[in-house]
Amino acid sequence: MVKYSQWAGLTGGDEVDEVETLDNVTRCPECNTRQAHEILKEKALKKDAGIDYLLRCEGCGNVHTVIFRNPKPVTIPFTLSDGPDSIPYEMEVDADERFVLNDEFEALDRIWIITRLEVEGDAKPRIVDAKDIKRVWASRIDLARIKRTFTDGDISFSDMIEVDPEKEFSCGTIVKHRGETWRIRALHSGTSRTLTGKMTARDIRRIFLHRPPTPDEIAERKIIDRGNWKGQEFAGREEHQEKWRDVESYRKRRGG
Predict the structure, then answer these.
(1) 178-187, long-range: CB within 8 Å, 24+ apart, which pairs?
(2) Tens digit of each residue's pLDDT (9 = 90 or more) over 98-133
C-alpha cells in the first residue's frame, strides 16, 4: 500500500458485507476512471520534494506517469491570548493545511482554541487554507482566570484566581480569603447572573462575594422574619432569658 492517502481507495457500497481493498488507486487518463495501478518505477526527488511514479493501469493497461509533489511549508503567524498577555508565535505547516474556527491545538505546552482567522479584506471565515491566512488568533483554554469582587458594607476590593476550567462554583459556598470568611453571593457569566445556581469556571467572568452574617445578625433576622408577635418584646426580656439559661445550665450539671 503506497503511503500517500490519495493512492488508497475502497470499492463497494455501504450495504455489502465484504469490501475489496485496492492498492495504489488513482485516476487513469486513458480510461478516465479510478483504477488500481501497478508501480513500474518510482523516482524520489531531492530534499524530500516528492516522488515521480511510472504506473500501469490494471483496468486498461495504459502506462502513464503520476507526479507527486509535497506541499511547500508556509509559516503562519499567531497571536495567543493568555489572560492579559498577548504572545506572538509562529507555526510552520503545509500549504494545504486548513484552519477551522474553534479548533483546539497545543503550543508552548498549553492548550488553545482558535477564536479568529484573519484574511485579506473584512471577511470573517470559519475555514481557511493555510496559504490564505494572514494571522490566527487564539485563546488559552486549559486554565480559567476568574475575577472576584469582595464587598463588606461600603468597602469593596477585587482580585483574580486561576483554576481548572471544569471546576464548579455554587452560590452560597463559604470561601476563606486572607484569613477571613466570605460567601459567594452571585456568579456572573458576562451575559447572565445567578444568585442561587452554579456555574463551571470556563463560563464565569466574575464572582461576587459578601461577608456572611454574624450569629447576632442571623438572630435579629429571624426575629424580623417571625414578625412582632405578642410577648416577643418586653421590658427585662434579656434578664429573663439569662435567668432561664442559668437554670437550664444548673439542671444539666445536676443531671436533672
Answers:
(1) 180/211, 181/211, 181/212, 182/150, 182/209, 182/210, 182/211, 182/212, 183/209, 183/210, 183/211, 183/212, 184/208, 184/209, 185/151, 185/209, 185/210
(2) 999 999 999 999 999 999 999 998 888 999 999 899
d(CA 118, CA 161): 31
Nearest in space to 135 (alpha carbons), one of 85, 82, 74: 74
Cα–Cα distance, 11 to 140 (Å, whole number): 43
More reliable by pLDDT, 256 or 149: 149
By the 8 A CB rule, do 2 and 15 touch?
Answer: no
- For residues 122, 128, 132 and 135, what is the CA-based torsion angle, rounded to 10 degrees? 70
Distance separating alpha carbons of residues 133 and 118, to the nearest angstrom: 6
For the CA atoms of the chain, what is the radius of gyration? Answer: 36
Average of per-residue pLDDT across 79-99: 91
Which ranges in the chain belong to alpha helices (H)?
Answer: 215-226, 237-254
How high is the pLDDT of residue 237?
64
Residue matched to cell numbers 462575594: 209
Q: Where are the domains of the chain?
A: 5-69, 73-140, 144-210
Task: Give the closest residue to 163 by CA, choosing from 149, 148, 142, 180.
Answer: 142
Amino acid, single-letter form, for residue 131 = K
The candidate with the shortest Cα–Cα distance to 138, out of 116, 108, 110, 164, is: 116
The H-or-E segment that residue 150 falls in is strand 144-152
> How many Cβ atoms sit within 10 Å of the Cβ of residue 182?
21
Kindly report, residue by residue over 132-144, the tens digit of the pLDDT. 999 999 999 999 9
